[in-house]
Write a structure and sequence with these properties.
The complex is a heterodimer of chains A (115) and B (204).
Chain A: H1 9-19, H2 27-38, H3 48-57, H4 61-68, H5 73-78, H6 83-93, H7 103-109
Chain B: H1 5-12, H2 20-28, H3 34-54, H4 57-74, H5 85-104, H6 122-140, H7 144-155, H8 160-167, H9 171-190
The chains are: A mainly alpha (115), B mainly alpha (204).
Chain lengths: 115, 204
C-alpha cells in the first residue's frame, strides 16, 4: 500500500517561497571563486600502497613528523602523498607540492636513513 | 558604423557554443578565460541551491565557493562524457549543504531572521527569512538523503529521473525518499504554524 501524504499548504507555501529565491552572486564572491580557479591544483600521485610501504619502513607518522621539519620536507611530501597531506602541504607551502621523483629513485637516494 | 548588439555579443562571447564541460576542460588545459565564463554560467545556480537549503546568505556563499573549488580541483581528472557538470555540481552542493545542516544540530538555533529575500517591507523580509530558516532547520532534522531528495524535488524543482542521476539511486528510491521526507517535514513544521504567521486551519 502506498501512503499518499495529505496536502500541507504551509509546507507547499514554504517550498514556493524558497524556490523564488534567486540570489545574484556579488563581485566579491565571484572574485573568490576565480581566485580559487587560478590557484594550482595539488597533484596527487595515485600510489597509496608505495606511500604506506615507505611509512612502514621509517616507523609511521611520528618519524615522519621529525622529517617534515627538515629542509627536505618538500621533496618527501611530494613523493606519494595521500590527498589530505597534499592539501595541507599546499596550504602550508602555498605552492604545488608534487615533484617528479619516482619511488625507486627516492629509495636509492639514501639521504634519509638514520645514522 | 557601430556593430549591432547581436554582433557585439558574438564577438565578446567566444564560448557561446561551448558546453559547460567544454569550458571545464578548456580551463584544465590552461585557457585563462574559461573559468570566468563557466563561473558566470553555473555559480548563480549553485548559490541558489545552497541558499534555498540553508536560508543563510553567508553560509550559502561559503558552500558555493567550496563547491566551485572542488570543481576546479576535479577539472584535471574530468573525462569528457562521463557526467554533466550540472549534475556533478548539484550533487556536491547538496552534500555540502547537508554537511552544514548536520553541524547545525549542535548549535543553538538562531531565532533572529536575516533578510534574505527582496520582499518590499522589513517586516515581510523578516517573516520570509524566519519562515525559510525554519524550513532549513527542519531539513536539518531529516536523514541526509531524505533532506537532499526533498530539496532537489521541492526547492530545485527537478524531476525524479534527474534526482536519481544526481543522487546515484533509483527513481523508486527518489520517490520513497521524497514522500517520507515531506511527511517528516510536515510533522516537524506542524507546531510552528502560528509562530510563522500561518493560519492553523481545522482539518476537514
Amino acid at each position: 500500500m502506498t501512503m499518499t501524504n495529505p496536502p500541507d499548504d504551509m509546507l507547499d507555501d514554504l517550498f514556493a517561497q524558497a524556490r523564488r529565491l534567486t540570489p545574484v552572486p556579488d563581485d566579491a564572491l565571484i572574485a573568490r571563486v576565480l581566485a580559487d580557479a587560478a590557484r594550482p591544483v595539488p597533484v596527487r600521485h595515485p600510489q597509496p600502497s608505495i606511500w604506506a610501504q615507505l611509512r612502514g619502513m621509517i616507523g609511521g607518522w611520528p618519524a615522519l613528523g621529525g622529517l617534515a621539519t627538515a629542509t627536505v620536507a618538500g621533496i618527501w611530501i611530494g613523493i606519494a602523498p595521500p590527498p589530505v597531506v597534499a592539501d595541507y602541504a599546499a596550504a602550508l607551502l602555498d605552492e604545488p607540492v608534487s615533484l617528479g621523483l619516482s619511488p625507486e629513485e627516492f629509495m636509492i637516494a639514501g639521504e634519509f636513513s638514520d645514522g | 558604423m557601430p556593430l549591432a548588439r547581436s554582433q557585439m555579443m558574438a564577438v565578446s562571447d567566444p564560448f557561446a557554443h561551448a558546453s559547460d564541460e567544454d569550458l571545464l576542460l578548456a580551463h584544465a588545459s590552461g585557457d585563462p578565460r574559461a573559468a570566468g565564463a563557466l563561473t558566470q554560467r553555473v555559480l548563480p545556480r549553485v548559490l541558489a541551491q545552497a541558499l534555498r537549503m540553508l536560508a543563510n546568505r553567508a553560509e550559502a556563499e561559503d558552500v558555493a565557493q567550496d563547491a566551485m573549488l572542488r570543481l576546479w580541483r576535479i577539472a584535471p581528472d574530468w573525462r569528457r562524457g562521463e557526467a554533466q557538470v550540472s549534475t556533478w555540481l548539484y550533487r556536491v552542493t547538496a552534500n555540502l549543504c547537508t554537511d552544514r545542516l548536520r553541524k547545525r544540530r549542535h548549535v543553538a538555533i538562531d531565532t533572529v531572521a536575516e533578510p534574505i529575500d527582496s520582499a518590499p517591507s522589513v517586516a515581510a523580509q523578516m517573516q520570509t527569512g524566519a519562515r525559510l530558516r525554519a524550513l532549513s532547520d527542519a531539513l536539518a532534522q531529516l536523514p541526509e538523503r531524505q533532506a537532499q531528495a526533498v530539496a532537489l524535488r521541492h526547492l530545485e524543482g527537478l524531476s525524479n529521473p534527474q534526482i536519481a542521476a544526481i543522487m546515484d539511486i533509483s527513481v523508486a528510491s527518489v520517490e520513497s525518499l521524497t514522500a517520507r521526507g515531506k511527511r517528516a517535514l510536515s510533522a516537524i513544521m506542524a507546531g510552528r504554524k502560528a509562530e510563522l504567521g500561518y493560519d492553523d486551519d481545522e482539518p476537514t
